[in-house]
Amino acid sequence: MITAYLTIDDVPSKITPSIVDYLSQKQIEPIMFCWGKRVQNNKKNAIYALQHKMLLQNHSFTHPRFSDLSLDQSIEEIEKTETVLESLYKEAGVTRPFKLFRFPFGDKGGQNEDALQDYLKNHGFTQLDHSGILPSEYEKIDIPKNQADCFDVKWTFDYAEYQVRPNAGFSVEDSISRANVRFGTPYGDHPKNGAAPAKVKAEQIILIHDHEETEAMHKNYFEDLINALLLRGMRFVKPIRRLD
Question: What's residue 21's pLDDT?
Fold first, then answer.
């Protein structure tokens, strides 16, 4: 068995409820990283996700590359989304258990990287429990091994299905081929429950995106990608914060 956190970027969209319904059926609780602007435009779908045990977290307001921004602009992107999320949780009647942040594109801010890490640390952001994730899992995708000491959430495996676009020459099948390389070929049956046993540690952080454009190219792409991992023995851990 491979254990992992499931993270979903660019939430919410028009297809978010169908993703939520599928994950609820499989008893998988993901971290959904939200654009603040998209939450404003799809608030009903964001509330639906919260009320179905999904954990919504900060992915900036407009999804810029932080290395193109000043420090003040970067902080504004984070804080505007925090305001949106606080209002959203309150309206949904759900308590936010902790605060997480993921940089768009994994861009940590260039020359402002250290200052942004200090900002996240000093403003109550935390990291997922990394105690089961080997530094080598980050190194496989050229992420520094000190990621577990940072206050933003990275990933260890990206399906890259955002590349599934007209005339792009990339398909969901190509994404699944990436899973073959990293996790091996299928060997199990489709389980009804995709949750990992209680108290186990996550060994991976999986990244998939919530994109209507991908759904238009490949119907039920999200289900196909998760099923591909389940068939390779992966089970998903409920999000747990790092204990500092």
Answer: 98
